[in-house]
Amino acid sequence: MKLKHLDSNLRIVFAKLTRTGLVVAAVLVALPVVGIDLTVLSVFGGAVGIGLGFGLQKIASNFVSGFIILLDHSIRIGDRLMVDNRVGYVTKMTSRYVVLKGADGTEALIPNDALISNTVINQSYSDRNMWTSLPVQVAYGTDLDLALSLLKQASDHPRVLKNPGANAFVTLFADSGINLELGFWVADPENGFMGLKSDINLAIWRLFNQHNIEIPFPQREVRIVGDKPAQQG
């Protein structure tokens, strides 16, 4: 594990293979020393092996799947994964499971077999940068060009990448206003998004107030068709 010039996944593979080989060698050496004939155990071991094969099928599947994951480099320590609607970072990889730590600090133990047989979204497989967006609504009658320009200006944050830069879009003409969206790339998603989005939302709020851009509240216009006017006495 101290061979820093080797890939981290390969170091884990070699460590596991070495440990397994040493255990098997120790057992094979120890049995004759205590007077147990290995040939006598071969028949008994075959029967036991069949029973264990059925009983430990899932464990064996996870064990083999763990080596496949390590060798094909599909998942690495530090990767951001989405597994069954759970998002987290890989903090540990064992022969049976992968530890996925969420933003709330909880840790999920994902069996290696599940990572092989199911669809896993690796959000940092080839690029650790991550795209995220913020929705905002403005009132009808707003200067949309100005609003889009202010959204880009609000994205001026140390954690937001300058290249590729942020962009703003008109997404929908909704009931109460016009929906806009600010999208940007983040280089350090492992530090979370709540604080970043809060800072940018505050910047949007301040810029919109400075330029008198209204963020509308839900409203409805009710018209009564065929209503007779009140008669004056």
TrEMBL record:
<feature type="transmembrane region" description="Helical">
    <location>
        <begin position="50"/>
        <end position="71"/>
    </location>
</feature>
<dbReference type="InterPro" id="IPR011014">
    <property type="entry name" value="MscS_channel_TM-2"/>
</dbReference>
<keyword id="KW-0812">Transmembrane</keyword>
<keyword id="KW-1003">Cell membrane</keyword>
<feature type="domain" description="Mechanosensitive ion channel MscS">
    <location>
        <begin position="59"/>
        <end position="124"/>
    </location>
</feature>
<feature type="transmembrane region" description="Helical">
    <location>
        <begin position="21"/>
        <end position="44"/>
    </location>
</feature>
<dbReference type="GO" id="GO:0005886">
    <property type="term" value="C:plasma membrane"/>
</dbReference>
<dbReference type="Pfam" id="PF00924">
    <property type="entry name" value="MS_channel_2nd"/>
</dbReference>
<protein>
    <submittedName>
        <fullName>Potassium efflux system KefA</fullName>
    </submittedName>
</protein>
<dbReference type="InterPro" id="IPR010920">
    <property type="entry name" value="LSM_dom_sf"/>
</dbReference>
<dbReference type="InterPro" id="IPR052702">
    <property type="entry name" value="MscS-like_channel"/>
</dbReference>
<dbReference type="InterPro" id="IPR023408">
    <property type="entry name" value="MscS_beta-dom_sf"/>
</dbReference>
<dbReference type="InterPro" id="IPR049278">
    <property type="entry name" value="MS_channel_C"/>
</dbReference>
<feature type="domain" description="Mechanosensitive ion channel MscS C-terminal">
    <location>
        <begin position="134"/>
        <end position="215"/>
    </location>
</feature>
<dbReference type="InterPro" id="IPR006685">
    <property type="entry name" value="MscS_channel_2nd"/>
</dbReference>
<dbReference type="GO" id="GO:0008381">
    <property type="term" value="F:mechanosensitive monoatomic ion channel activity"/>
</dbReference>
<dbReference type="InterPro" id="IPR011066">
    <property type="entry name" value="MscS_channel_C_sf"/>
</dbReference>
<dbReference type="Pfam" id="PF21082">
    <property type="entry name" value="MS_channel_3rd"/>
</dbReference>
<keyword id="KW-0472">Membrane</keyword>
<keyword id="KW-1133">Transmembrane helix</keyword>
<comment type="similarity">
    <text>Belongs to the MscS (TC 1.A.23) family.</text>
</comment>
